[in-house]
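Title: Prediction job returns without error message
Component: structure pipeline
Severity: low
Priority: P3
Assignee: unassigned

Description:
Job completed but the reporter wants confirmation the result is attached to the right record. Sequence as submitted:
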Amino acid sequence: MKSNRFYPLIMALCIVLGIVIGAFYANHFGGSRLNIITGGSNKLTNLLHIIEDQYVDSTNIDSIVEAAIPQVLAELDPHSVYFTADKAEAEDELLHGSFSGVGVEFTIREDTIRVESVISGGPAERAGLLAGDKIVSIDGKPFVGKEVTNDEAMKRLKGPKDTKVKVGVLRYGSNGEKQFVITRGEIRQKSIGATYMLDDHTGYIRIKNFGETTYAELLIALATLSESGLEDLILDLRENGGGYLQSAVQIANEFLPKNRLIVYTQGRRSKRQDYRSDGHGSYRHIPLIVLINEASASSAEILAGALQDNDRATIIGRRSFGKGLVQQEIGFPDKSRVRLTVARYYTPSGRCIQKPYVAGDEDSYVQDLANRYNNGEFFSEDSIKHSGKAFHTANGRTVYEGGGITPDIFVAEDTSNVTSYYRQIAMSGLVLQFAYSYVDANRQTMKKCETLKDLEAWLAKQNLVEQFVAYADAHGIKRRNIMIKKSYALLDRYIKSRIVYGMMSEDAWTEFVNEDDEVLAKAKEVIAAGEAFPKPPEKDEAATNAKS
């Protein structure tokens, strides 16, 4: 009974205490902040508001959020990432296949923009710019010195379609600064890096990435090759980092019979979605080879996996990157976005080729390719370590999940003539600088070379290695005669390749470097032997596979 006598007093004290506490939070976390201070599930949001209200110095919450979001996503997987508005725009341009600008490829040397090439038919070419021009002013203001960065140059030269930009250039052999007014326009970025016939019947297509226009570009490339007598095809997916899944599906469909599974995706909140061929592809029966390496990833692996698991093509090269996660893009009002992993993709045999990772340990994930190299995988097929279980292709060949697509035919990287001198040269960037200067000084002479063969014949007489070695010596890399002799052929090809790129085009560069490419040579050998279509395993092997 005594305890009941104090009950009203206790209740009154609780009410007063509640009012005091409520007043405190109302004063310190007033307005819209009050309804988000609800508990542990909103710790991050709570913390940001507490910092904004209570921190000793003024802070920029937006910049804190920009720095925090990538860290949060890194705790999920290596491919859930955040793009600022600027980076998101650049990514869109790459995948959409176009952007609005002036139409030049440039490099920055000695704090000056130097035009490496002018896109044919583009705004800069129409205005009169030439490869080799040095852009020294933009819109009447000097643009040289430390402010000349790649980002700043892109910012000033790119802009909305039909807007104008005035550039001042210094041109080799001309006196004074020349002024050009360029009307910006749509600049196409090709996904197809090169298309040409290797011989009378074998076509070659290099796909650099999978964007919105890739499939359309491929159809044009195939039609062009067909007019030249195409009978068998080599698709080069080396260094292809991926892109849109749909583009890979469309291309696979072009080569597969009707109702073949190309790929399927599935996630915790994403129902399984199958992608199948419709049988309308025009190249379902052509002998096909696909080239891959450790930089072939994502959609490139989807295409390679679809063709391998359906026994439609022979895969040649080295084990691919191993990205088997599917991302969905989620945009914010400021045009930044998150690319969040929502599913995994699986090849037709049922394998997910995502290589192992530990959430939050991005360094180890990035280090994977270096570890493969150090473990000898680039040089020996026996060094390939399969982390997942075995699956089987349509005709019973064994393939493995986890860690990428293992090629049907392995071709080792040739490092027999690589020396420490060559590595130092390759890392220094001096070959690119030398090639630019060489093209600039000899452009008028080399213009007389109408074909790649003509240019190669002229370059063969120029003693380029000796010229470059002297140039490198003057720029801090001392001559090493014994190592130069051992790496002579590598140096010669590298220097010439960059001159070809600067003087002609990316297509010509690809054709040039392919001339002594061992992976491509192996592909041509397989086609010549009539072995592009994978064969079922021998009976003993099939029996072993059935038990595994």
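Comment from assignee: result matches the submitted record. Residues 210 and 243 are 5 Å apart (CA to CA).
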